[in-house]
Design goal:
This protein is an all-alpha fold. Helix content is 80%, strand content 0%.
Length: 109
């Protein structure tokens, strides 16, 4: 998904569309050159911030998923493990749910 946003041209496509609209409005004489230039600079700042926020969000989500995977794959010490397989799997599922809940809380989804 991150590659689709960054390399797939979604942000670049939005930028090109806005540039085209700004150029046509300028050519039609509805705005002057200075205003068009200012709008394009503002557009670039906004789109750069959007791209940085997307990257940051993806990185946080990957880190949370990695943490959850490590937590799930690290079993309890032998003396703390339930002897019954059902209880052992239930304990593992509960740890996974708790880890997932922490991830949801951290990412505020």
């Amino acid at each position: 998904m991150q590659n689709a946003v960054k390399n797939g041209g979604i942000i670049d496509g939005i930028s090109s569309l806005l540039d085209t609209v700004i150029d046509k409005v300028k050519k039609a004489g509805l705005i002057n050159n200075t205003i068009a230039k200012t709008i394009k600079q503002g557009k670039n700042i906004i789109l750069n911030n959007v791209e940085n926020n997307i990257t940051s969000t993806f990185n946080k989500q990957y880190e949370s998923i990695d943490y959850a995977n490590k937590y799930i794959s690290n079993p309890l010490p032998e003396d703390q493990r339930p002897r019954d397989k059902r209880l052992r799997y239930m304990a593992q599922a509960e740890r996974a749910v708790a880890s997932f809940q922490r991830w949801l809380d951290e990412t505020a989804l």
